[in-house]
Design brief:
With 401 residues, the chain is α/β, with parallel strands linked by helices. It is 42% helix and 14% strand. The protein has 14 helices and 16 strands. The strands form 4 sheets. Strands 1, 3, 5, 6, 7, 12, 13, 14, 15 and 16 form a 10-stranded parallel beta sheet that branches. A two-stranded antiparallel ribbon has the order 2-4. Helix 1 packs parallel to helix 14 and helix 11 crosses helix 12. The protein is globular. The termini are close together. The model has no long low-confidence stretch (mean pLDDT 94).
Amino acid sequence: MKFDIFLSICQTEVDGYLPSEKVMFENFFHQLKLADELGFETAWVAETHLSCQIQKQNPHHVIPHFKGEIGLNTDILQLSLLGMSQTKRIGFGSAIRNVICNGGPLSHAEAVRTFLTLQQFAPFADRKFHLGFAAGRFPFTNEAYGFVPKNELEKTAWDVIKNKYFAQATEILLRALRGDHFSSADLKTQVLLKKDFRSEESWQKVQKISQEKEVIPLDSHWQFEKVGVIPFEAPLKNLKLTIGSHDPEIQVFANQFFPTGVFNLSITPPALIEETHQRMQDSYHPSGGPWKREYMPRTVMLFIDDTPGLSAAAQSEKAKLTAEKAWRNYWSAMENTLDPQKVAQAVGNTIAGCPAEVLEQIRSKYHPEDRLMLWFDFNNHDSESISRSMKAFMEKISPQL
């Protein structure tokens, strides 16, 4: 079993306290250095773009009741270079980099190749870099960069078409990363089919607009003549890719170009997890070797209490109360509601308890060869408390797993 850490750098209000950006990053680097010392394999860092606070001023606000910013890291590449310079062995990963905004997939491919080129001249030239990529959480971050419907067809079927364009972005990103020289004319033509739509009425609308009956071809959202992404000699040996999409077709499609793992959340049903593993065994890009379970990182909300002097039962109760409080604060901030059923379900999907209880929960829920992204800082700005939880896990639980 692999143990990574997930660091959100989420600047939200907790119990009336909203840390400054400087304090948030100070806490991040403190926890990062400790994770390195304790032996966590990879530090996955959340990535966010454009202010949620400012976006609340617009008519179509996405999280109007959230105080603060969902995340402060806007560039995992810069953060990784600095983080690697302050640590000894830990790898870095993006969870998850939006490759639609900030110039689109060609821009991101060029930035990553530049990062890998510069890394080879540093003392940490052998560190692994995990590029987790997706299409972004909130539409407004992409809209600001022109990722919007361009015609009547796209306006009518944008919910479907934007996913087709993410498939295009995936192809562009991976072909550029591996060093292909290509133009938009060389991309696979994405098409709309009846099966893409939830209702016959929606399908008939796009048929009427396009004047096509069975297959509706789409142009490339990104139009460009033949390009080559520089630096050409960027070393790729340390680069690992993971896609943030639950669409089986896109997971398989990505592996036509480059070995690409898959993200899955802790709340993903076990049957879907196993189905994904089976599919990836058959479709993982052959240059990456055989598929391994560790190529699907699993986020784990972890609440562990190891308070000296408390009984195991009291530690367990304290950890679960902390988990419930964190989830109540989170859902209240996200939706301005407190749905007891949603809170209970969320708490049920976390790992919470005393060390012995946490150990048994992980054993029963996860496969011995899984990779766990342990999330200690969820709705918590007490860096010393987070550090104690990290130590308790790595000293009392991980050796037994």
